[in-house]
Amino acid sequence: MITATYSKELLTSLKEEISENKRNFSKTQIPPFLGCTIADKYGKTLFSYELFEGSIDYFLKKDHGSNDTVQDLDINLIPMFISALEAFSQEINIKDLPGLKLEGTNIKLQTIFSFDDYTIIFFLNPNVNMKLVETRIISYLSYLFEVYKSDFTNSFKMSSSNFILHLKLLGKIWLEDLNNTYERLAEFE
């Protein structure tokens, strides 16, 4: 049983807005924020959203010529890896493992460990300075986990992502806003 109701019109308008947003970003230039994955502390992905469908895969493969020769990325494996790394760091007594950052030539991965029950992973342009929007990100995530706490709880209890699917749509819209905000702030840096 889903505890919140979302009208078909609202979800349709959100999908249309996301489709409009997709056209605003060029595939020749890597946007600041490509996507985000929210997982539990055990590495189970609750949901992921991207700036546009397939954006992370696209930019990972971008400089490889034929995209057919490069395997698809399974984003769900990344939270599992990070969860295992975090558990291992506790075993070898590393206190307060800071946010993990992995950088490549065409994409960067950064995690935020500041939420007790969740690991949030951002896929970024490698040139992004996360400090410019870090406060905005933490505020949004705090709001998300506070306002939709019962949706997350129900998702865990019932082992069903149906309770949080609407957050994926909202996340895509927020991600575009975050990109726009970052680009405005980066101009003055």
Q: What does it look like?
A:
This protein has one domain: Beta-Lactamase (2-Layer Sandwich). The chain is built from 6 helices and 5 strands; from the N terminus they run αββααβββααα. The protein has helices at residues 8-24, 55-61, 77-91, 134-147, 149-158, 165-187, and strands at 33-40, 45-50, 101-103, 108-112, 118-124. It has a 5-stranded antiparallel β-sheet, with helices on both faces. Helix 1 (8-24) runs parallel beside helix 6. The chain is globular. It starts with 7 loop residues before the first helix and ends with a helix. The model has no long low-confidence stretch (mean pLDDT 75).
Structural Rg: 17 Å
Largest sheet: 5 strands, antiparallel
Q: Using the coordinates above, name the CATH class.
A: Alpha Beta
Low-confidence segments, given as residue ranges, are none
**Inertia-based shape:** globular
Task: State the helix count.
Answer: 6
Work out the helicity level. 40-55%
Count of the separate structural domains: 1
User: Which CATH architecture?
Assistant: 2-Layer Sandwich
Structural class, by secondary structure, is alpha+beta
Give the amount of beta strand, in percent.
15-25%
Oligomeric organization of the protein chains: single chain
- N-to-C order of helices and strands: HEEHHEEEHHH
Number of beta-strand segments: 5
CATH fold type: Beta-Lactamase
- Write down the overall mean pLDDT: 75
